[in-house]
Amino acid sequence: MKQHLLSRKISADKLLMEAKVVPSGVAEVAKLQANEKFVYLRP
Length: 43
Hints:
Layout: H1 3-7, H2 25-35
């Protein structure tokens, strides 16, 4: 479990089934945009 979840006292079993814990959200978004044609839209 990642540090942010631990510091907020959130256990992994509380996440949605579809959720995936990754080391870096920023890196994951960049990877999805580059390799899988996802687009991040900021409201």
